[in-house]
Amino acid sequence: MSQDLATLTAREMAALVRSRQASAVEVTEAVLARMERWEPRLNAFVRLDPEGAREAARAADEAVGRGDPLGPLHGVPITIKDVQAVRGLPTRRGSRLSDPAPAAADAPAVARLRASGAVILGKTTTTEHGWTAVSHNPLTGATHNPWRHGFTSGGSSCGAAALAASGCGPLHLGTDGAGSVRLPSHFCGAVGFKPTFGTVPYVPVPNNGSLSHIGPIARDVADAELMLEVMSGAHPADYTTLPGRYRPAPAGDGVRGLRIAFSPDLGHARVDPAVADLVAAGAKVLEGLGASVETVTPPWGPAGPDLIRGLWVAPLLPYLPKDEAGEAALDPDFLACLKTGPRLSPSELNAVQGRRLAYAGEVGTWFDGGWDLLVTPSASVASFPVGQQRPDHWAPPGWDWLAWAEFSYPFNLSHSPAVSVPCGLTPDGLPVGLQIVGPRHADALVMRAAKAFLAARPFGYERVWAG
Questions:
Q1: How far apart are CA 315 and CA 319, in angstroms?
Q2: Using CA atoms, how far apart are residues 457 and 453, in angstroms rounded to an integer?
Q3: What is the sign of the dihedral through the CA atoms of 163, 168, 174 and 178?
Q4: In the chain, what percentage of residues exceed pLDDT 70?
Q5: Best CA proximity match to 334, nearest among 162, 127, 119
């Protein structure tokens, strides 16, 4: 019974609590028990807060007993990536050099989740300051992939994706500056959605050229939509937020009648054959559901790599310590990125920002030219061993993890909504994600397509849950 409760969808959990068929305490204890079984293998938490979660669950049950109005996530256990503040817990950002003091208040997205009745279980692991998409940092070590111990769960939302795929609760908050919601979802076989920029308030607003988004990581598309609905909407502390709440689209005809572009390489990206084969098969599934799918090479694709490397490194430079002791405390690959990555002068950085704005305009105009959606791989590779930035066959080694992430960051640059959904396992038994992208503000259409895809091609977790 405990395992059954722990692996239910968020909607099922909330319905049981609302109808008093299960208490919030029972649901929370079931998820905590499942996490206890998985955690020695995953190392997915910076700080698990079981007593705080139990107290919140008891309060949720008392609210049910009083007949109080209940939010859509009432009694549902969730986790928060350790780059967003949770009242009473520190925000360490994967760094030994971060402030260990507990946060005085919740970040806006967290406050909205708490107000909806969600039970916060704790803070999940991230790479140091979210700089890379592989799952290790000097503060907590490596987070492991539930499909294979010793392999990366991706990043920077490492713990969130590992917990989602292992059935440890239905909803996990992630953030995404160049793929950090979608890439770990790809590696772990989860659903990771990066909404249109500004959909969810991100406070404090990152000083990184408007690259960072907040998004849900889950196993179920409708669950991810519910979490996004709760978190979305304008906030006075984030001037970039958009008015209005996210609203799911009616199921309608799924993808029938949509014009979908399929780009296996964006005109420049290297992709491992096992990944390419699974994603191509996924595009065929969408075609079989009634979409018109055409293989294309977007003209804007090859401009991405030069843009992201300049824009990615520059905002990270303030994290470079001024002394040797500080440098020794950093992730060595992060230090290499800071010391050897592109160093742009103010005029060069301004020019790159201008090219980025033009790039975003090209992406938007391209969609407006007749494409409803774009399908790509979520990443070029399946999971590989922890402790390295690239698979062994992607020589030369080095800090540049972006080489295999050429499909994710373009849609941070363009502010487009994009979701990674699992589309199968490689012959080696590792998950692969198919990415569905839409024009800005077409979030509900993107998720409608994701829902249709997974209804036609369900992704089973029984194999990994069986251990």
A1: 9
A2: 6
A3: positive
A4: 99
A5: 127
Only one residue has tokens 């804007």, namely 300
Say how many domains are in the chain. 1
Burial bucket for residue 305 (CB in 10 Å: 0-12, 13-18, 19+) = middle
Whether the ω angle into residue 385 lies within 30 degrees of 0, i.e. cis, is no
Q: pLDDT at position 466, please? A: 84
What is d(CA 249, CA 441) in angstroms, rounded to the nearest whole number?
Answer: 12
Q: Where are the beta strands (DSSP E) in 246-395?
A: 259-262, 292-295, 373-377
> What pLDDT, on the 0 to 100 scale, is given for residue 29?
98
Tell the burial category of 20 from Cβ atoms under 10 Å away from its Cβ (0-12, 13-18, 19+).
Answer: exposed
pLDDT of residue 252: 84
Domain range for 369 is: 2-465
- pLDDT score of 2: 45
| Three-state DSSP state, 164 | helix
Those residues of the chain that have pLDDT short of 50 are 1-2
3-state DSSP helix/strand/coil percent for the chain, to nearest 5?
A: 40, 15, 45
366 residue type, one letter: W
The predicted structure's pLDDT at residue 3: 52
Vertex 280: Cα angle to 276 and 282 (nearest 5): 120
Coil, strand or helix at 153? coil
Task: Return the ∠ at Cα 350 (arms to 344 and 351), rounded to 5°.
Answer: 90
How large is the angle between the packed helices 221-231 and 108-115, nearest 10 degrees?
A: 110
Q: Residues of 70-108 as b/e, b for ≥16 C-beta within 10 angstroms?
A: bbbbbbbbbbbbbbbbbeebbbbbbbbbbeeeebeebbb
Domain containing residue 278: CATH number: 3.90.1300.10
* Residue-level pLDDT at 1: 40
DSSP assignment string, 99-141: --SBBSS--HHHHHHHHTT-EEEEEE---GGG--SSSEETTTE
Residues 94 and 223: their CA atoms lie apart, in Å, by 27
pTM as predicted:
0.98
Name 4's Cβ contacts closer than 8 Å, sequence gap at least 6: 30
Distance in Å from the first CA to the final CA of the chain = 18
Known catalytic residues? 81, 156, 180
